[in-house]
Design a protein that fits this description.
153 residues, alpha+beta, 4-stranded antiparallel β-sheet, 5 helices, 40% helix, globular
Length: 153
């Protein structure tokens, strides 16, 4: 074989530090554009980015030459930097260290893309913890406690 082929899609969920509701509607779409640009700069192909005040969902086709942890560290670091230096919130903005990354089969891309697009409607009924536990269970994980996002209190 002359070259390698990969087709890897990730659905990633990550939260604001302590799951605080700090992502504001007036600048969230620009934040998502910044994140999409960061993914493209790393050779990834963003498909969907959306979220609510306390967390974000991303879906992208992954560049095989990039490690997922490096991608996430750069993505969250650049987004936090943008928020802190362009938006200039009253307190330092930070994302939590962890994230959930779920592989997505190509035939499921439209469904996951729609799910991400409907985040605001979805979270009128379901909180982050319930949603995330559902994603963890759907991936086959049984011991959910160690993968929870930190909460204030």
């Amino acid at each position: 074989m002359a070259s390698s082929f990969t087709q890897i899609y990730f659905h990633v969920v990550f939260a604001v530090k302590f799951r605080e509701s700090l992502i504001r509607p007036e600048w969230e779409s620009e934040l998502y554009r910044v994140m999409g640009g960061n993914l493209r700069e790393s050779g990834h192909s963003p498909i969907a980015i959306n979220g609510v005040e306390d967390h974000i969902h991303l879906l992208w086709r992954h560049n095989r030459s990039r490690a997922l942890p490096d991608t996430m560290q750069k993505l969250k670091g650049n987004a936090s930097h943008w928020i802190n230096h362009v938006i200039c919130p009253p307190e330092l903005f930070r994302f939590q260290h962890g994230y959930g990354a779920f592989s997505v089969s190509p035939d499921r891309i439209p469904r996951v893309e729609g799910y991400i697009a409907r985040q605001k409607q979805h979270h009128r009924k379901v909180d982050l913890q319930t949603e995330y536990e559902g994603l963890l269970r759907a991936s086959g994980l049984i011991d959910l406690e160690q993968y929870q996002f930190d909460r204030l209190c």
